[in-house]
Glycosyl hydrolase family 5 (Bacteroides muris), 434 residues
Amino acid sequence: MSFTFTAEANKGNARKASITITAGEKETVIIITQAANNEQENKPAIDENLPAVKVARELGLGWNLGNQLDAHVNEIADETSWGNGKVTQETLLKVKQAGFTSVRIPVTWLGKVGEAPHYHIDADRLNRVAEVVEYAERAGLKAIINIHHDGHRHIHEDGFDEHRWLDIVEAARNKDVNNAIKEQLKSMWTQIAQRFENKGEFLIFEGLNEIHDGRWGTGTNTTDGGKQYAILNEWQQVFVDAVRATGGNNATRYLGISGYCTNPDLTIKHLQLPTDPTKDRLLISVHYYDPANFALENKFAEWGHTGALSKKEKWGDEEHLEKIFAALRTAYVEKGIPVYIGEMGCVHRNNNRSEAFRKYYLEYVCKAARTNGMAVFYWDNGNAGAGRECSGLMNHATGTYVNNGKDVIDVMTKGYFSNDSSYTLESLYNNAPQ
């Protein structure tokens, strides 16, 4: 008696399957291995001498000070309103000691900006942002600051469209609205840049964060003939022009540029890099939380090729991740444009098996970023619970570890910094949780 088994062509990493044959009391297990065949496997090792790779290596593995200076209540920025204590110098010293090399400091400016035409930024707000930037500098960390939730948009279940002054939908409809937004953006970035004019190269400005129409890339941006993409490109040009015009160290400062909702695919397809009088000083910023139902929502407990089918999302496994990162490498890194994953993360689980998949996911993201010559930043919102929105690794006021934060950081630092030649994406894949 003979049996024939067929499998679809492998488009991903090397994979294994076991076939168990039972006859009476006898049992035989046959292990079948299918060779790897994907875009990442076929790419040569990244050239460490590429200028874009060198910039990414300096940023390295970063930590987001999330739900902190970006927090707000009743449309007013408020550092402690989302549950975190005030960040201290000790916090960022411990972030550095934990193994991170950079910190992204998201900043919301709501309620701290005056009326047109000057849009004067409250001095206390600027001073507090400057104080935290100095914490990072003293700790030996690279730092990124931005305009964060001023562009947040959310469509509620009842249809309510919650949005703020960086309104890309209305800007795409109304030229006057777009011009007013650009004037405010110019004024704010002029003031921010002037405040930090003398800060060294360790400080990077990131113009905008996750600009979209509330549908995360699947809304009217797909039907408006490219209007929203064009508007965002205009805004990024305003940002670059405003910063460069302030002179000093800002004339050559690295600037982070993001595409529509910081989605990698939409960035590659629709972002037009701003014209910059300073050569090779623009960086691409994207975010990666795929699949969101695993990484953010905790609707699934497992991830990757070894995850149980009933416990993992139907898409977004290792092959998906590698294709996206390889595409960023091709579109930008190999053309001399540095890339950083400005946000990525995965929420804490309350059982060991789910945490094993969480750590595997985070290690894989970090290793893939390193392999493709990019920097990567973990989103830490300080939340010490388990489940949705619980991505805390360190207490923001003290720098002490939250939950199993040290273990999670250790796998990420291994993924990004290990120089062991036998440690590859394939070896990591082959040692996924079982």
